[in-house]
Amino acid sequence: MTMKNLGGNIKSLRNFMRKDAGVSGDGQRIEQLGWLLFLKILDASDRELELLKDDFVSVVPEPLRWSSWAADREGMTGDALQKFIDQDLFPTLRNLDLSTGNQRARIVREIFEGTNNYMKNGTIIRQVLNSLNEIDFENSEDRHLFGDIYETILQELQSAGAYGEFYTPRALTEFMTEMVNPQLGEKVLDPACGTGGFLTCAINHLRSQGIDQVKDLETLEQTIKGMEFKPLPFMLAVTNLFLHEIEVPSIEYTDSLNREYTSITDADRVDVILANPPFGASVTDGVQDNFPLSYRTTESADLFLLLMVRYLRDRGRAAIVLPDGSLTGDGVKARIRQHLLESCNLHTIVRLPNSVFQPYASVATNLLFFTKGKRTEDVWYWEHRLPDGVKAYSKTKPIVKGEFQSLRDWWGNREEGEQAWRVSFADLEKNGFNLDVKNPHVVEVERGYSSVELLGMLHDSFKKSDETLDILKDVLKDA
Questions:
Q1: Which range marks the domain in which residue 178 is found?
Q2: Sheet holding 312-323, edge to edge
């Protein structure tokens, strides 16, 4: 199947979904497509493993395997199909036996515990199934082509309401992975993995180093780990790793912040962290109590920063996305940044334009690169500029990897210049460990105001209004 045919195939099945009265909006369509794809890809993986391993048995009961109920174009349809899905398929998969410790069974059960079947018209469901059956996931070429299509499906989450937080532009995930440069055997973690973009970039990066032996593949599978606590991105991430030929994706269905901070010990620590933790939202009630008293906050990005420093082993490396609001502020925020600078060498901050994550968010963001175990002496800053003629990134003009070439060229031979500057630990300490340092070589740089700056401006505005109101009251009293 060609890319064009495959793209048309996905478009047609989504058009079928739009005709079903039970499905409303892109978010539900993506979830519906997600669990169907998951079962089809899982069945293809099971069939391959049955050929490779004499003792392999699928965790999905035979009548519920895709090949048993969905693969036949003339198979179940109408009310019988809809009833089978709602009354047999979902209830059984939500209650799979986990007593054997089979990790594939755990993954299937967790996915279906948090997933719904929205489609209510069995005839339309059959049309969707038949369209999906035109893709052969046992064919390596079809699987590779679909991997690219799947990336565009995930990208659509950016404009699917509240789901946008789970997708990081591919240009960022690839560049960050390249700079951190994970090696085979190193443990790689994303504690807020969303749909698995950083994990698949790490897998591709490691495979590019020439992995081909069975032992190497087992090592790769055992050392790539993610955590995600929302059901839709968890399902999409697992499917993403299946597409990248990971037999048992090591993704925990959990809130990584909901763990006692001090319980993270050497056995849990990792060599590499790649992440874009959620920001701009408060954490679940009580989660902050898992952290030491002096670091407690309800801002998710700040707690994730603290958590990631804790998870890194000595000489471990990290590349993460953080908003401007985490680079500044006093109190707990300042103490967390001080801990970062004293525990790690925060060697590089890449300042991004505020439109990188549009339309989901327009806040200014940064890429932080640091290594655990040695205190920061100097932080190098690099101002990433919009391409010539581009006023802002958008869905049709996203950030692309080639834009980082000048940064790559500078990375190994650093000098101050129009886009680069350096700030010492001593200077940062004097300013309350404020990392929101503007480019000294440019009078004014087009960056959106941070949330802290906006709050400050709002406070000043209210203060001036109150002062004006007091003056007016005095005037009226004397009149």
A1: 152-448
A2: 250-253, 224-228, 188-190, 270-275, 312-323, 365-372, 344-351, 378-383, 420-424
